[in-house]
Amino acid sequence: MLAARVHALKARILAACEVAGREPADVELLPVSKRQPLDLIREAASLGFQRFGENYVQEGAAKAEAEPGLSFVLLGPLQRNKARQALRAFRELQTVDRPDLAARLGRIAEEEDLVRPIWIQLDLWDEATKAGGCSEPDLPALLATLERSPRLPLRGFMAIPPPGHAEAFRQLQTLREAWQQRLGAPLLLSMGMTSDLEAAIQAGSDQIRIGTAFFGEREIPA
Length: 222
Ligand SMILES: *Cc1c(COP(=O)(O)O)cnc(C)c1O
Hints:
This protein is of the alpha/beta class. It has nine helices and eight strands. Strand 6 (154-159), helix 7 (168-183) and strand 7 (188-190) form a beta-alpha-beta unit. Pyridoxal-5'-phosphate binds at residues 32, 34, 55, 75, 160, 193-195, 209-213.
């Protein structure tokens, strides 16, 4: 079941890369295993996947403890009081969106002697969404804070654009290019999920985060 679904997904990604004129090896497929049981994650590992996205600190930390040979990436909102637990459990954090959180993560990473690549979650469309995300005007301050935290190397930008917002991926691509120039360092883009991976690949996404098309419907209630 899982193998067949993943096979179909890979074909979909290949087709999208072909249309976009991109190399499939340049687009990372990150399976999102939130609300999926451990045995499905183990099955995915047997297919060669080693990194998994998780949305909830508690759930992801439990899975990371059960499967220390795999890497888990935090994709969900991070509260200040869970910063230490998140740094210990996840190899990367994708939802850093404000300077106070980044500064706290930097201090704790120092105390815990950990290095954790960071992605900034952007929200260019609605600064009031409860999903979080850094607005464009707030981005320079957040980048400056991360620059002072050598244990939190910046990987790039992550976003969950509102559905049907056709221009969103292009906007993100433009912003990535602008900041890459200013920082003089490569920045990756994590964008695209089950319903919009083709548009994301077309717009230059470096990492698509796929839950449903990889694992099927989520099994564990939220
Ligand atoms: C759940 C989730 C995904 C995967 O969603 P699907 O639509 O099931 O592919 C990707 N990114 C984030 C941040 C998510 O929360």
